[in-house]
Amino acid sequence: xxxxxxxxxxxxxxxxxxxxxxxxxxxxxxxxxxxxxxxxxxxxxxxxxxxxxxxxxxxxxxxxxxxxxxxxxxxxxxxxxxxxxxxxxxxxxxxxxxxxxxxxxxxxxxxxxxxxxxxxxxxxxxxxxxxxxxxxxxxxxxxxxxxxxxxxxxxxxxxxxxxxxxxxxxxxxxxxxxxxxxxxxxxxxxxxxxxxxxxxxxxxxxxxxxxxxxxx
Length: 216
Description:
By secondary structure, the chain is an alpha+beta fold. It has helices spanning 41-54, 156-169, 180-185, 187-215; strands at residues 30-31, 39-40, 59-61, 71-77, 95-114, 118-119, 129-130, 134-143, 149-155.
């Protein structure tokens, strides 16, 4: 049996799983990330956090690792609004809180829109844009890894992170919330990502074919 990976490959723009509406998940489920052995939800969450840290991100949704379930991980860093993916500062040393949310339901508690922060996405590496309209404050109801129902209030940058990750569970990218010409400005980069996404899926299918032939 294959060993569990230390980190997962992050799916890129153009991968169909990133446009699918994710399904509910329960803490007792067994999940299979494509290319990896079956794991518990907690094991998947732990590996997602490691994947997020290695990619120097603030959040990662399950569809971004090819798993179409309603689950995301996120962190609150010290000075998180100044998070810079180009720095070499160990992220774990700056973590204030870690979050693992199953089946999150987000409610806006402050409808005033904030467009001040620059936003990016681990599935669209290298592209950052300001002006993404996000509610200033939200409430999130979710299930934790122990099956307990939780409610969390978040404002400003953390509220933005939760909105971004919840969008992923509905197949929405941050670029979708900006005028179409912004996406068009990045057409060449996005086309390159789409080609990489297609090649990754082809390689994954070929690896699975080989695995089945060896088992058969």
